[in-house]
Amino acid sequence: MKQMGETLATGSIRDHNLIHLPSPSSRVSIEMEDTSPATQNCSASITDLDMDALVHCASYLNLQDLSNMAISCKYLQRAAYSDSIWQSLFRQQWSPLVHTAFSSHINHKAYLARRTDLLQFKFIDPVVLDFPTEAKPHEICI
Amino acid sequence: MASTTETKQKKMLILKSADNDEFEIEESVGVQSETIKNLVEDGFTFVPLPNVYTKALIKIIDYLKKHANKTDSNDEEIKTFDKDFVNTTFDDLFELVSAANYLHISCLMNMLCQTIADRIKDKSPEAVRKIFHINCDYTPEEEAKIRKANAQAFEGQFDESLD
After folding, report:
1. Where is the F-box domain positioned along the sequence (chain A) (predicted)?
2. Which are the contacts of B99, defined by CB distance < 8 A and separation ≥ 6?
C-alpha cells in the first residue's frame, strides 16, 4: 500500500501511514457543492479539455458540424482537424471502394479535396478510376 | 452497509481522490475502469487518483456501481440513470470527461462525449462560441480564411438558438 502511494501519488503521501479504512457507510460525506475556492474561481471550459477527449467528442460529428466547430476557435479547430477523424470519415464514405491502407494518408485537406473532386466529377484520381462500372457515381460520392 | 465479514468475502479497493478523500468500493465495481483494472492486476488494493477530484469521483463511483449490476431486467432503469447522469452543467461534464478519460472507462467516455457533441451538432460557429463561452481567438483575416476553406459546410441553415 505504501509503495503504491509513493509511486502514484507522490504529492499526497503525507497521511498514508495513517490510513484508516472508512466503512462503506461512513463513506466520506462531501457536499455536492464544490467548496474549494480554486475550482470555484476557474470554472471548467471546453478549451480545458484534454485534446484526446475533445477529438473523441468531435468523432460524433459530421462534416458540417466539424467545420462549424473548427471556425469557432483555434483549440476546437485542432480537434476538428485531427487526422483520425478524417480518416474515419473517409473510411465511412469510401471504404468499400478504396484500399484501407490508402485512408491512413488522409487528413482534413485531403478529405475535402477528394470530396470536391468527386462532387465535380473530376475522376482524375487513379483510385477513383477503379470504381466498379455498375455503380452510379452520384450515389457513391454524395 | 457492509459488515466486516462481508468486506472480507468481497475484495475491496480503496480509491483516493486528488483532494485526499478515500472511498472503499468492491473490486468488481472498480475494474470497469481500465486504469484501476491494471493496478488491481498488479496486486494493488489502494489506488490514489491524483487527477480525479472528490466531486467527480463520487459521481463516477455511482455510475460504476449502477453499471456493475447491469442485468436484462434493469436495462430501463440504467437508461434513466444515464440520462440523469449527463443532464448536468458543462463544468461537471468537462470534469467528468477528464476523470473518465484518466480512468479509461470507455462506456462512460462515449456517453459523455456524445452529450457534448450533441450540443455542437447543427449549431452555427457563433452559437457554438456562445454555448461554450468560447472567445474567438482568430484574427478577422484568419476567420475569413477558415470560413472560406470550410465554405462547403455552409450549404444549409444552422440553428442559432443556444439550447
Report:
1. 54-91
2. B51, B52, B53, B56, B57, B60
Q: pLDDT of B97-129, one tens digit each?
A: 999 999 999 999 999 999 999 999 999 999 999
Read off the C-alpha cell for B153. Answer: 459546410
Q: Note the pTM of the prediction, 2 decimals.
A: 0.72
Residues near A34 by beta carbon (within 8 Å), at least 6 away in sequence: A40, B55
* Beta-strand pair B46-48/B12-16: parallel
Specify the DSSP element, H or E, that contains B22: strand B22-26
Least confident range of A6-20, B50-64, B132-146: A6-20
Q: Which of B24, B98, B123 sits opposite A49 (nearest CB)?
A: B98
Query: In degrees, to the nearest 5, what angle opens at C-alpha A15 toward C-alphas A10 and A17?
Result: 100
Closest partner residue to A46 (CB to CB) among B45, B132, B158 is B132
Chain A contact for B91 (CB, 8 A cutoff): yes
